[in-house]
Structure formats: C-alpha cells, structure tokens
C-alpha cells in the first residue's frame, strides 16, 4: 500500500477551510442510521463521542476505567495552548504553527500542524462556554503563561489542574448525551481486537473487565483515542493502566505504526527513589516559568549534597550553575523539553547530580528568586515601598501558592520536603509519545473506517511535543476535525444498514482473543507479569531512552526478542477469564509492549540522525546539540505489520515537504 496523506492543495492558510467546504455531509435525518464506536474517553475520545452524539449519530464509547473522569488526561497540569494573542506579545496562528514545527525538530506534517493552530482559539471559546474555570487576570480576562519552546504567553490554565478541568468539561458534554440516550457508555471494558469486514473497520471485540465476558460491538466507523505508549518503559509519568493495546491491535490488522521511536522525556519529574517504584510523578512544566534549574558548580559540593553533608540552601549564589540559562540565554529555563532533559542528563552524567539515589540523578528547581521578586512586586502594588525581608518572603510565597499551590502540595506529600523553603528535586522521565498510529489528513488510519485521535496517532508533534499542546491536540481532534472527516467517510455508508455481529469475521476475531487469554491462563510459568514488564523497562530506558547508539539499539532488539520468548514460556497468570482479573489484563498489555519495544528499537536504529526526543549519540555537534539529516531522514517512518516476527515489519516512508517554513537548525541560544 502506498501512503496517501490526502493533504489538500492550496495555500496553507486556506487548506482546512477549503477542504471542509467540499467534504461530503450526512443529513440530520440519516445520522441515526449510523453507528460510531469510540475507544477511549480522555479528552480526544470524550470530545469526539459528545460531538457525534450531539450531531445525531449513535455512539458507543468504551473505557477501561470505572469512569471517563479517570482518563489520564486529568494528569495534564500546566495548561493548553491557543493563538489568541491576549498578552499582545506578538503571537499569531502562524507563530504557533512555526513554534510547533520548530519544537518538533522539523519532523511534523505542515498541513496538520497549521490546522491545529487554526482551531486552537475555538477550543478555548468552547471550553469557556462549558464552564471550564480558566485563570483570570486582575481585569477578569483569561490569563496566560509561557511554556517551553516559545517566547510568547499563549498557555491558558486552571491552576495546576488544567487537564482535569478540561476533562470535566468534556465529560459534562459526554454525560449529557448519555442521559439523552445518544451514547451507550461501556465503563470497565477493554478493546482487545478490531473487526474488519471486506477490508473496512466494522466493529470491535471488547472484554467486560468485571465479568470477563467477551462482547461483540459493530459500527460503521471506529475511532481509537486510547492515549500513548509511555508505559513500555514501565516507569513513566503515565497512569499505570495506560497502554498501547488498542493501537497495537489495529496495527496487527493493517494500520501502520508511525515514528515509534519518537518518545518525549519530560525534564521536571520527581526522581526515581527505588527499585520497587511503580510509576513516576510529573511536576508541571508551568513551574519553569517561576523556577530556575541549577546544580552546584563544584563537583565536591554535589558530592557533599548526595552524602547529606550539605543542603541546597548552603550553596551560595555564585556557586550555582544555572545551566539552562548559561547554555540557552534566549529561552533560559523555557527551552523545549528534549533540550532541557538532555542538558540535565549531561550535568548528572558529569557528576553534578544532587539526588542520592542509585544513579545520582537529580537537579534543583528553585523558586527562591521568584518568591523574592513577586513578594517585592506585591508589596509595592499594595503601597508598601520598603517592605522587610520577612514581608517580601511572605507575600512571595502567597503569590506562588495562588499560581501553583496544588503542585507544591503534591510535591510535599510525595517527598516530605517543603518546596517553599527548599528547591524541588527533579529529573527527566518518560512522559509522552509523539509516535503512534499513522493517519492521513482526515485522521484515518490505513484501515478504511478506522480513525485515530489524540496521543494515539502520530500526526502533530514531530520528534518533540511543545508543552501544553497535548490538550490542544486532543480537543482539536475531537471537537473540530473528526466531526467533519468522519462524516465525510460515513456519507458513503448510509445505505449499509445495521452491521450484524454474527458474521464469520466477528467469530474469528472473538475466538482469537479467547485463545490468547486462555493461553496465558494455561501457561505453566513461574514469574509474574510485572517481572517481565520491569525487565522490558530496564532494556528500554538504558538502550532506547534519552541517549541511544547503534550498539545499544542492536542489543536491545536481541534482548527484547529473548525476553519475548521467556515471557510466553514462563509468565504465570492466576485466576480465570470469567472474573475480574487484573493480572490477565496486564499480561495482554505487556505482550503488546514487548512487541512495540522491539519496533521502537528498530525504528531508532534505522533513523541515523538526532532529532527532538530521538537522540543518537553518534549524531551530535560539538556542543551536544542534535544533528539532523534532512537530506535522508525528512520523512515519517510508518511500519507495516508482517506477523509475529517484529524484525519482519516493513518500513514505508511519507516524505515531509516544507513549503511555508524554512528548515533550519534549531537554535534556542
């Protein structure tokens, strides 16, 4: 199959508008004849399901959580981008478009990114109308703050819980349609296969996670909005239930998987503290607006801190290395995530880490300068032009609490350290996946009728995602793209009629799922699923993580292949299929992670360049910055499944053409 991205002709500023004007429509009286399945009810899935139900389609929505409110979208803390230029600092649709392309290291599709920037303002209007409590400035207008990779303030936020508030808005819309009978909601259900009839997506096989029953559900279109695959590393900032199963199942049925090696490492996470840790905790990127990142200038000071002989507050200002401000003066602490993460790793690898964990990995995120600065400003605004030091600090802490209070509270609960008094300790960790199922401009995969939205697809972020763009993409896809493109597809399905679930295709898919589940339960192994997941995570982090090289990637491919054999030979899954069985759920997911992990290593090995979150140690300049190869690697790498041997997958290339942005070396200095 030749990849056809279906990018419209015409000027970049007019593509989406002109394209929408010529898409086919489904009349309101015909929409109740059509069924749409939505897998995943985070921001992308919930907004899509609510939108289609509001339009009059029949919708079935599925989530493995006990409620859509538990989707991992709630974990997004810092904000959502939109090009409204409320701060009058030069922002525009083009500027957001440019920042996103540059932030992704020129490995994203121009047309998709411009469309994202175009609809960004509509998202804010929609969410305000839903009652999302965005922060306001002193005049009552919506407030903004900066995020990494930009020199403007375009991030709308609700304290440190923006994702939760946006999800509650989408959930309200979803719930309204459930109440009106237009959405059938299936909580505690997991999609375990897609069903194709005559080449088209016609339904799914889902497992009721409470009873264990396998269910057949048919539809005229299937939308996958199941999130990213960061948990392939075991330790990540993702919720522990986050997985790739829905995306991987459709990959095995013909949907190409694109750029799997593009994984984002977030620079501000609480460092790993032990071998028995099950997940990592993100501290919002918004904190980099006010916090300054540093390590001691002297290696002996770092060693003393790790040994417990010195504290951060014992290090004088002149003995602190604010390494992001030193290396990238134009952007400082607000460089993109991949840049900040590599810089922190470089300092720790050089022996300047301050956290006394197994690897001595950690740097400081310090708010003392901001506390003093904002304290003085607040005092002055109140008429006190000569405040005492105590008054300044008190007022500064109050300002910080208003902006970031819940984040500071969360940090203190986890670490038992007060970040108002001492700097936070942070270190990079796996956070987001830019790769995902390949989709065209319509967000349709290579399976006709199967659409993919949000983090589950690859389309908008290139090799690195700018902060506060995940929420933007999820809502853009669900509210403002899919309602047009899926309707265009469904216009040809009006006469199809109800799709039966007793066909041979549904029976074959269900039997395959049942066989896999019973295979796990009948296996006479001795080791838990987590045992293998942790082993996979170690391989992935050490050899397919922040720093990659040909030798390590080659070793990873072989080690994961051996791990796969051991997993299927020696995994032990207790219980039965006809009950709540979390170990069985995990076994299916880890089997998919193992296959994906091997493909990620293959994708990273073939991409002989460094770009964004993909850092090949062989391809860096004298200052440790990425060296792209635009002549040979300006393409999307989309992989086609060829059976159980992941080494047999076939790579297809979608050439990336830049007509409106000039490709250049990224420079944040």
Automatic annotation (TrEMBL):
It comes from the Bacteria. The active site is at residue 337. Keywords: Cell membrane, Electron transport, FAD, Flavoprotein, Membrane, Oxidoreductase, Transport. It is a peripheral membrane protein. It is found in: Cell membrane. Residues 35-471 form the FAD-dependent oxidoreductase 2 FAD-binding domain. Its EC number is 1.3.5.1. Pfam families: FAD_binding_2 (PF00890), Succ_DH_flav_C (PF02910). One of its GO terms (biological process) is anaerobic respiration. One of its GO terms (cellular component) is plasma membrane. Signal peptide: none annotated. GO terms for molecular function: electron transfer activity; flavin adenine dinucleotide binding; succinate dehydrogenase (quinone) activity. It catalyses: a quinone + succinate = fumarate + a quinol. Residues 533-668 form the Fumarate reductase/succinate dehydrogenase flavoprotein-like C-terminal domain. Its cofactor is FAD. Its main location: membrane. PANTHER family: SUCCINATE DEHYDROGENASE 2 FLAVOPROTEIN SUBUNIT, SUCCINATE DEHYDROGENASE FLAVOPROTEIN SUBUNIT. Belongs to the FAD-dependent oxidoreductase 2 family. FRD/SDH subfamily. This is succinate dehydrogenase. It comes from Flavobacterium rivuli WB 3.3-2 = DSM 21788.
